């Protein structure tokens, strides 16, 4: 089983740097029905209730977008991953497991070109800023602008992105 770590705050290269992503809550919201993770368990993990404290009802995060690995290993449907977050600084602190192992239901290759054209499995073409981009962003737990800023923090230096969409919800299609 592989490990996927998720950011708890936006990276330093993002305009919203340091603000919470709520990815933990969004992932738990996504898998709630499948793994019977209760709202109580989410609140216990956080130490408080987002809904009670902030009036936040979060949409689910149904997938993650990851860059191609240098070793060439690809994700495939049927793989399992352990979802985790860092307890402190990324890559130097301990990891915290946030849910039971999650099964990957679907995987798509994704390429984002400097022209802002986006290809999914070398066939589905969409543009950054389009309605389809917003759908992709929503399924990834972000809005379109935040997703764009995540992958293209500096448009002048952007040379493209190649990776995979790793999805744990069978109802998502691209």
Task: Tell me the span between the first and last alpha carbons.
Answer: 26 Å
The proportion of residues in beta strands is 15-25%
- As an assembly, this protein is single chain
Based on CA inertia axes, which overall geometry fits?
Answer: globular
User: Can you list the strand order of the major beta sheet?
Assistant: 2-9-6-7-8
Description of the molecule:
The structure is a single chain. With 174 residues, this protein is of the alpha+beta class. It has one domain (2-167). It has helices at 23-35, 39-46, 50-54, 131-139, 144-151; strands at residues 2-5, 63-67, 80-86, 95-97, 102-103, 106-112, 117-120, 124-127, 161-167. A five-stranded antiparallel beta sheet has the order 2-9-6-7-8, with helices on one face. Strands 1, 3, 4 and 5 form a four-stranded mixed beta sheet that branches. β3 and β4 (95-97) form a beta hairpin. α4 packs across α5 (144-151). The radius of gyration is 16 Å and the shape is globular. The mean pLDDT is 87.
Write the layout of secondary structure elements.
Blueprint: E1 2-5, H1 23-35, H2 39-46, H3 50-54, E2 63-67, E3 80-86, E4 95-97, E5 102-103, E6 106-112, E7 117-120, E8 124-127, H4 131-139, H5 144-151, E9 161-167
Parallel strand pairs: 1-3
Antiparallel strand pairs: 2-9, 3-4, 3-5, 6-7, 6-9, 7-8
Question: What is this structure, in a nutshell?
Answer:
This protein has helices at residues 23-35, 39-46, 50-54, 131-139, 144-151, and strands spanning 2-5, 63-67, 80-86, 95-97, 102-103, 106-112, 117-120, 124-127, 161-167. It is of the alpha+beta class. The chain has one domain.
């Amino acid at each position: 089983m592989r490990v996927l770590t998720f950011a708890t705050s936006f990276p330093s290269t993002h305009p919203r740097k340091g603000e919470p992503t709520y990815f933990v809550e969004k992932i738990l919201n996504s898998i709630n029905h499948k793994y019977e993770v209760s709202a109580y368990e989410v609140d216990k993990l956080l130490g408080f209730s987002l809904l009670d404290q902030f009036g936040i009802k979060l949409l689910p995060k149904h997938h993650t977008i990851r860059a191609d690995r240098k070793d060439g290993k690809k994700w495939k449907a049927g793989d399992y991953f352990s979802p985790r977050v860092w307890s402190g600084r990324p890559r130097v602190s301990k990891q915290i497991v946030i849910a039971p192992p999650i099964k990957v239901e679907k995987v798509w290759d994704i390429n984002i070109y400097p022209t802002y054209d986006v290809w999914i499995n070398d066939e589905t073409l969409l543009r950054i800023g389009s309605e389809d981009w917003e759908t992709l962003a929503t399924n990834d737990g972000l809005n379109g602008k935040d997703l764009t800023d995540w992958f293209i923090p500096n448009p002048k230096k952007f040379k493209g992105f190649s990776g995979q969409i790793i999805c744990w919800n069978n109802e998502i299609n691209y």
